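Lab channel / #folding
Pinned by the channel admin:
"Please post every new chain as: sequence first, then the structure tokens as a reply. Keep commentary short and put observations after the output so the thread stays searchable."

First post following the new format, from NK:
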Amino acid sequence: MEQYLIDTNIISHYLTSEFPEKGLSFLDNIFDAVPNISVITQIEILCWKSTDAIETLVKDLINDSKVFELDNEVINHCISIRRKKSMKTPDAIIAATALANNFILITSNEKDFQNIKGLKIMNPHKL
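Reply from TO:
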């Protein structure tokens, strides 16, 4: 079975139901299981300025997720990505986390992650 890593923008769009029906249905299945997120995504979503209700949803999502920390494999992938591609470190860490764990990265920012060897990307907006 395919495993997925959820990018920060997907969580934002999911909480505001900004997906077509097929994309939303697909993500419902991902979020109903144990979602995988990078420690970077955890940091980013906890920094959002939002309502108390959204903050509660975000904290519940994190508690229900498997958060992938930085380890040597992720760090090595990140270094390799940054040497080959001009990319911000947080995005490189997210891509490296997907690569290190053989996950498909779910993102709507496909352009940010193009041309990274071995990285599989999925955009629920296009389902």
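NK: The beta strands are 4-6, 36-38, 66-68, 104-106, 120-122.
TO: also worth noting, The helical segments are 8-15, 21-32, 39-46, 52-64, 72-84, 89-100.
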